[in-house]
UniProtKB/TrEMBL annotation:
The keyword Nucleotidyltransferase does not apply. This is DUF4153 domain-containing protein. It holds the Pfam family DUF4153. The keyword Phosphoprotein does not apply. The chain crosses the membrane at residues 21-38, 50-70, 77-97, 117-140, 160-179, 199-217, 229-255, 267-287, 299-321, 333-352, 359-382. Keywords: Membrane, Transmembrane, Transmembrane helix.
Length: 606
């Protein structure tokens, strides 16, 4: 091992160090150029088929180059980076073509959209090339296409720790820079504080510092190995806890049933997360297969390898139930792809768990094959082969054609904002539909959706909510009270979603609606408190124009006081003048919020 480290020190020469730092600096300068172009709305930001591939390549390729220098031959680096560029161009071009890469929150002051890679494409591209680069580096190290599992293990964990600590290095550097800026501010010198507010300074410094962190962690393999060993040992001792919790969960299902699980509406993602945690912890205990492991960890790892399959199967059932009820969407297609990979792991680890003569050694085969499966799945998802947007739009349109989804329940917003070019094409077709009992409603809904702009993405979270839907979402208090007709008749889609509870915009949201005459004018106001995840309560009052808007709120500390809320629901309250009057400061009313006792016991209410 020491000879290997000496060889590595010799291999990673001063020239390599300078090349890595230079690569980081050039990356930072080019990324700043693209940032400035997007900010100012000038070329190349005006050309999405150029901007998105450039941005994607400049984020990923320099990191791969820095990691390759000193470990791959120049010819191998050129071939590898050309292959990376080809895949990134395919991903980026398809990302632009499908029309989901223009983000309203990236708009400049002139409201022109800045074309950037979609989040999913960028995130999974990083995952794709982390795996692919590990396979390439390990193969080059062993001089064979399929390397030894120990080499894959060493390379993958080294890359993970390099990325983690390089990011930590960047954060620590900026902490020191900000601390230095505050020191200079003490003597009225603002130059460093001003520089830290400028993107022309921050972007190149971040990239150069990251490349420096990559280099330092590369030439000190013993430090990286020590950190990895400590991290894996600590993680492996979490495995028995995870096994107990997952076993308890699975054993409780026959008694609790699955209904409560489905009502969470995110069961699949949670179960996928559980499966991923089990996989990581098993590998933390197994490592490269040569680590000395206690009997408790061996039993825990073998048990966890068996538990992954039922967890994944419950996740498959949960996703299948949602697809049967509501059809495919982009998120569900991605979840299905993740479940496919998880099912492969689950079957492989179950097989490994029953090989008693060798302690989980077959997982080495499963892990390598799963890495290639992940690459294949990601290639399918981010090319036209299995585009989630296309599959989702086709599914929703098929359900509409078969009558499984009524026109009144059809999600035009999904087609407009998450279906990309496929969704817009489907909306154009619906706009021209002239036959069928719901043709008029579909035409109207499609025309409205096509008229939305990207700035309407969030406020158009749903079409207008009907009075019946709002009434169904509300539990009115006191028990025999009735909501004002104007409150039920209001179209709540005109109010931004961040200014109203979910019960006014989605079918799933449920609220308590408490009628309170808060101003003593004889007309009740409506206090809405969400039932499932209550924050503060929002008090709605009717204005002179007949529109209901939020006029006040009740804090979370009152909402969580059950005796207090019970009295409000029963109408047991009186109106009192505030102890401190409002201040009029330059024509603006300033309210003094009364301090409350930290040891307030809400159970001692009178």
């Amino acid at each position: 091992m020491e000879q290997h480290e000496i060889a590595l020190e010799t291999q990673v020469s001063r020239k390599v160090m300078l090349a890595r730092l230079g690569t980081g600096l050039v990356q930072g300068l080019l990324l700043y150029w693209l940032y400035a172009a997007g900010r100012d709305g000038v070329w190349p930001a005006t050309e999405p088929y150029l901007m998105v591939p450039l941005l994607t390549a400049l984020v990923i390729m320099p990191v791969l180059l820095i990691s390759s220098l000193g470990h791959l031959q120049p010819r191998q680096i050129v071939i590898w980076l050309l292959a990376v560029l080809a895949v990134l161009l395919a991903f980026s071009a398809h990302d632009v073509w499908r029309g989901l890469n223009s983000h309203p929150f990236m708009m400049g002051w002139d409201h022109r959209p800045s074309h950037t890679p979609s989040f999913l494409m960028m995130f999974f591209s990083v995952v794709f090339f982390f795996i692919a680069h590990t396979l390439v580096r390990a193969g080059a190290h062993d001089g064979r296409r399929i390397a030894r599992y120990g080499t894959y293990f060493e390379t993958a964990w080294k890359h993970a720790i390099q990325l983690l600590f390089s990011g930590f290095f960047v954060g620590a550097l900026f902490f020191v820079l900000y601390l230095g800026a505050e020191l200079f501010m003490l003597v009225k010198l603002k130059f460093l504080h001003q520089m830290l507010q400028e993107s022309w300074f921050n972007v190149p410094v971040i990239c150069t510092a990251f490349s420096c962190g990559m280099h330092v962690t590369d030439v000190r393999p013993s430090i990286v190995r020590g950190i990895r060993t400590l991290l894996l040992v600590l993680m492996s001792w979490i495995l028995p806890v995870a096994v107990v919790l997952v076993t308890g969960f699975l054993c409780s299902l026959p008694f609790t049933g699955l209904k409560a699980l489905w009502e969470t509406r995110h069961a699949t993602s949670v179960l996928l997360g559980v499966a991923a945690v089990l996989l990581v912890l098993i590998n933390a205990a197994f490592q490269n297969g040569d680590a000395k492991v206690t009997l408790a960890l061996r039993v825990s790892a073998r048990t966890a390898a068996i538990l992954i399959l039922p967890v994944v199967m419950v996740g498959v059932y949960a996703l299948g139930l949602r697809v049967h009820q509501y059809g495919w969407t982009s998120d569900r297609v991605v979840a299905a792809a993740c479940l496919l990979v998880a099912a492969f792991y689950a079957a492989g680890y179950l097989w490994a768990a029953y090989q008693y003569e060798t302690w989980l050694n077959p997982v080495t085969i499963v892990n390598v094959l799963a890495a290639f499966l992940v690459l294949a799945v990601l290639l399918a998802l981010f090319t036209p082969i299995a585009d989630p947007a296309r599959i989702g739009v086709d599914s929703q349109m098929a359900r509409l054609a078969k009558g499984k989804t009524k026109a009144a329940d059809f999600d035009f917003r999904y087609l407009r904002f998450e279906g990309g070019r496929y969704g817009r094409a489907a909306l154009e077709a619906l706009k021209l539909r002239s036959t069928g009992p719901d043709a008029a409603a579909l035409q109207r809904g499609a025309a409205e959706a096509l008229a939305w702009t990207d700035t309407d993405r969030w406020k158009a979270a749903s079409l207008s909510t009907t009075p019946v839907a709002v009434a169904d979402n509300l539990t009115v208090w006191p028990a025999k009270a009735t909501l004002p007709a104007s409150f039920l008749a209001q179209k709540w889609d005109a109010i931004p979603d961040n200014q109203k509870p979910d019960c006014l915009s989605t079918k799933e949201g449920k609220c308590d609606a408490i009628l309170i005459d808060a101003d003593g004018d004889g007309k009740p106001e409506v206090l809405l408190v969400e039932q499932h995840s209550p924050g503060g309560g929002q008090l709605f009052a009717e204005g002179r124009d007949g529109q209901w808007t939020v006029v006040a709120s009740i804090s979370y500390r009152h909402i969580t006081c059950k005796p207090l809320m019970e009295k409000l629901r029963k109408g047991e309250y009186t109106l009192e003048a505030p102890r401190y009057k409002e201040l009029n400061v330059g024509g603006r009313q300033v309210q003094l919020d009364q301090a409350y006792e930290l040891d307030l016991d809400c159970n001692k209410l009178q």
